[in-house]
Please model this.
Amino acid sequence: MTSTTPTRILILGGGCGGVYTALTLEKVLKRELKRGEVEIALVSRDNYLTFQPMLPEVVSGSIGILDTITPIRRLCPRTNLYTRAIEEIDFQRRCVTLASGVGSRQLQLEYDHLVIALGNDTSFAGQQGLLEHALPFKYLGDALTLRNHAIHALEEADIERDPKARQGLLTFVVAGGGFSGVEAVAELNDFVRSAAKSFRNVQPEEIRVVLLHAGGLILPELPKNLAEFVQRLLMKRGVELRLNTRLAGATAEAALLSGGERIETRTLVSTVPGGPNPVVAALNCPKDRGRIVTDPYLEVPGHAGVWAVGDCALIVDATTSEPSPPTAQHAIREGRCAAENIAATLRGSAKRAFAFKALGKMGSLGHRSAVAEVFGIKLSGFLAWWLWRTVYLMKLPGLDRKIRVAVDWTLDLLLPSDIVQLRTDRAVSIRREHFEPGQAIFREGDHGDWLYIIEDGEVEVRKRVAGQEETPIRRLGPGDCFGEIALLGDHVRTASTHSLTSTNALAIDRDACQALLSTLPPLRDFFNRLLEERVGMRPESGDAVGVSNGVAVHTTQETTR
Ligand SMILES: Cc1cc2nc3c(=O)[nH]c(=O)nc-3n(C[C@H](O)[C@H](O)[C@H](O)COP(=O)(O)OP(=O)(O)OC[C@H]3O[C@@H](n4cnc5c(N)ncnc54)[C@H](O)[C@@H]3O)c2cc1C
Model:
């Protein structure tokens, strides 16, 4: 390290892998950093580290929303942080492209050493309707969304009179029987059952919480007797276990199971492991099932100066010769090892091969119980729970966070669960929806507040004339739209629409439609022609629905939808 230009070390990802690489580099290269011989930069979408093992507790509210996250700037004060999305890694030019921020300019960062710690992705690819209707569970925003969603479902159930709709609102389904799924279902179950006591019209026996797991026993990471203990405990608390059952798809109203069965639900969470991060998937380097293969020192073979750690990397442990599992414990140790090996490379000293024997495995199950296997000793119940809390409190980065979490945990022992629904989402103006064959998309009498455009599939419009059975009046396919008459006429639906096949559609809400129609005259003309064709009346006659500058003109004639 004698040159005058500093050596640039660039870390991609602000999870356990990336942040612990930066933390360790700051320690081991302290002198070099002071002399300006080295520069460390870290790029991540968020400016904080999420401590994922504690996310399930955000759902139940037993810890504060911000207590699971720590600002990266405070943890790594000598690292330059870029809070941006990463778009591309170019091994040839040794540079990384970041998405544009407030302005429209992308950023390019060059590196001498690159550490890839991008984790994996929640991918719902290949399962119909999951992208549109299932909730992921990986980041803080996911835990918050799930909590708000569950409270919203209870609020709606409290005022809903239709038994089928109530059943869907009060059924909560979690797919995935690994640690994150089991911890999430345990906390969700505790939370909805205790929160429901504050809802006058929701009876405890109406609540159904279901865990779907593809294998015959949940928590395959744990010894059989501990996993069986967890199963018994969950069932005792009212969780319905569906083993050897895969989630095959979803609609807005149901979870679709592999055998063809459906569970009516308005809350579906999928913790089933996702696919590779898209930036990693686009890389041209050795990979195994989407994970970047490294040598024993965590460097990518054939790409000197490129290192990979955490969930996105396939790292074979030097002692056991087994691939390291995707856990926070491993990501932290891999980050430290990569940092030490980068320092060794800069100094020309020997690198160390990665080896780590996990200290144990622990999972919290809410209600002051947990399971743990530590140093080969198996624990369950309250003792395991106490140990779990103590260990994670010690592991949680940052003293201020440790104090906040300890206070929240103490208060949680004394106070009832909070049921405030925080609305953080902005109004949705366009969304994708998936419908199964035979599913009603809307019915006569529903309020007409969405316009649909079919992406693929086929739907049928049916109308009831003079109180008789519904009669098909129109079939629509890809590229067709429906729902415009009630939406633009601002009245209830006067016909029903059902999907005939598996159908994907874009749904656009009233405000977005009117904004488009008022600014795009050709679109306005298109809808006027469509209304004329479908309603059979000229809009200008004043008898039919028409569009004038995006403002609906009401009909006095019978409309078809
Ligand atoms: C709910 C849950 C509970 C868990 N419980 C435990 C547990 O009890 N014990 C345990 O050991 N492990 C647990 N894990 C697993 C553990 O959290 C992960 O193995 C660990 O976080 C992996 O760290 P990582 O740094 O590789 O990836 P991640 O933590 O996923 O970090 C990846 C980082 O890259 C960033 N990123 C990704 N793509 C881009 C992009 N294009 N642009 C910019 N930034 C990007 C992300 O924002 C993130 O900061 C749990 C995981 C979950 C989801």
User: Anything to note?
Assistant: DSSP finds 16 helices and 33 strands in the chain. Residues 13-18, 43-46, 52-53, 55, 85-86, 117-119, 137-138, 179-180, 277, 279, 310-312, 326-329, 331 surround flavin-adenine dinucleotide (CB under 6 Å). The radius of gyration is 27 Å.
